[in-house]
Each structure stands twice: as structure tokens, then as C-alpha cells.
Amino acid sequence: MKTVKIGNIEIVPAMAVGCMRLISLDEKNAAEFVARAAENGLNFFDHADIYGRGECESLFSKACKAAGVKRESIYIQSKCGIVRGKMYDFSKEHILASVDGILSRLQTDYLDVLLLHRPDALMEPDEVGEAFDILYKSGKVRNFGVSNMKPMQIELLQSGLKQKIAVNQIQFSPVHSGAIRGGFEFNMLTDGAADRDGSILEYCRLKGITPQAWSPFQHGFIKGTYIDNPDYAELNATLKEIGSNYGISPSATVASWISRHPAGIQTVTGTTNLQRLLDIKKGLDVNLSREEWYKIYEAAGNILP
Ligand SMILES: NC(=O)c1ccc[n+]([C@@H]2O[C@H](COP(=O)([O-])OP(=O)(O)OC[C@H]3O[C@@H](n4cnc5c(N)ncnc54)[C@H](OP(=O)(O)O)[C@@H]3O)[C@@H](O)[C@H]2O)c1
Q1: Which CATH number fits domain 3-299: 3.40.462.20, 3.40.50.1370, 3.40.50.2300, 3.20.20.100?
Q2: What mean pLDDT is predicted for residues 118-138?
Q3: Would you say the pTM of this structure is higher than 0.85?
């Protein structure tokens, strides 16, 4: 299975198990899901304080307890900074209080990674720096990162931090490929040429930041899956054809496509179906050829000028 590095964690699977939809499971099934994922090497779990208004984190800790999953056998990442329906808040008080809430719901003393969920235009880098310092020195947070941020926002934030920003979690997939599309359509008048993210993948590569791909199987802003969706017939046919060369499913072929990019992107899946999760994981054993990678990119409706 392909792996990536995140901050001071040298090796984690190139696929994180996203827990935003965990509350669709009852406690027994959540325990089975978490335990079997970890047993199969998928031991990096992605949370946020807002998922299920905290219920996802609470269910996760109950599930781990019920299944006997040891804290040190897994990596837990969570996020804060969104005050739902109101604002984004990177104030020191908000960050510190949010982490205490996260740790108490997760029933743990520490997070392996804390991400700031969406950029706060009112952020004061030095103030965030004070919060991160307290969290790092107290051992409550071991690594820090961001989500949905442009390079200059990361630069600004980093200017106030002692700890290095290790992660940027962004929406990314063959059908949500702005992070590479803008580069291909350089200096053109096409829609894809619009610079919506400021060359974020190139920036992450230069800075040693691990990108994470959220909603890898959704089209639009979490509108539903494009897998087996007739609106994406050409993409599905291509994923099937290329996947069949390796004996993997279309979903696994997407994971393979994401992990083929040299930025070392970690796919963050959202399925709560164990079979599907283990099926997608097979994509991390496959290294697509350059030709296959480009074929999938084009089949998703992207252009190569
Ligand atoms: N940083 C951010 O702003 C942000 C935003 C959104 C999400 N996230 C993170 O990203 C994770 C993944 O997001 P997501 O849940 O939207 O991702 P996803 O993996 O793209 O979508 C998963 C959903 O698609 C369904 N699905 C149906 N057919 C599928 C197929 N063939 N292959 C894969 N999935 C299929 C799954 O159903 P079944 O469960 O029945 O398989 C599940 O409901 C979240 O859990 C969260 O951790 C982060």
C-alpha cells in the first residue's frame, strides 16, 4: 500500500478514513467499521468538530472502546475553526476551547494532527501561533495543518507559527481537478484557466506539505457520487477499462489516480461501507502509467490544450 509522510509521522497510509458520515452507523457497526479498517492498515482517521455537531467524534470514541482499538495503534486528525452558520474563528480562545472539546469527545489526550478547517479572513498569525504553541507544548496536538487554503493564506499563517504547517486538505478528484487544470490551461480563455487556488499542489510540493483530497468520489460540492452516474459515462467507462487491467474497481482506480500525482496526496474517503473501503484500498497497490493517468483526466471532461 502506498504511504505518505505527515509532519513528524514518517509513514501513514495514502488513504485516510473520513468520519464525516460515521453517524449513519449504529455503535455496533461503527465499532466493526473502525476496527476492521485499522486491522487492514487503514489506521488514519479524519474528523472535524462540526461533523454531526460533534456526534461523529463521540461515536468514534465509543466505537474504539467497544472494539478494543488501542489509541496508540491509530492516528487521529480533527479540525476546528468553523462556527457553523455564523463565521470562521481562528482566535486563540476558540482554537483552545475547540481542541478541549474535540479531545473530550474523542476520549483521548492528544490529536496526531489538528487542521484549521477553512480560512478566517480575520486571522492574526501571531495569535494562532500562541494557541498552537500551548497545544504543542502541552502535548495535546502533535502536528498542525490547514484545509481549503491558498498558498498566500498558508504563507501568512505560517509567518506567525513555530510549528510547520504539514497538511492542506482540499477537494480533489478527476472531476474536481482545478488544482491541476489551471496549470494545463495556462494563459487561455477557457473556464479551466481561472486561477482558483493559486497553484496549490506545486506550492505544497515546494514546501513539503502533504495535500489531502476530500470528497474524492463526489461531484460538485458533495452533490452525490459520479461513480456509476450516467452524467459521467465516459469517465466511468475509462475507469472500468483501466481498472480491469489491474483487477480493481472504478473507485479504487480513482484512489490510484489521486495517489499517482507526485505531490503525495492522501485520499480521504467518506464511505461507511467496510467492503467498499477495503475495495478502494486496492487502488493504493497500483501505479498507473502516465498514459492511463492522462486518459482518466480527459475522460472526466477536462481538456489538454
Ligand atoms: N476539509 C473539508 O472541508 C472537508 C469537506 C468534506 C469532507 N471532508 C472529509 O472528507 C471525507 C470524505 O468526504 P465524502 O464523504 O464527501 O467523500 P466521498 O468518499 O467522495 O463520498 C462518500 C459517499 O459516497 C457514497 N458512494 C456511493 N457510491 C460510491 C462509490 N462507488 N465509491 C465511493 N463512495 C460511494 C458513499 O456511500 P457508502 O457509505 O454507502 O459507501 C458515501 O456516502 C469526509 O468524511 C471528511 O472527513 C472534508
Answers
A1: 3.20.20.100
A2: 98
A3: yes
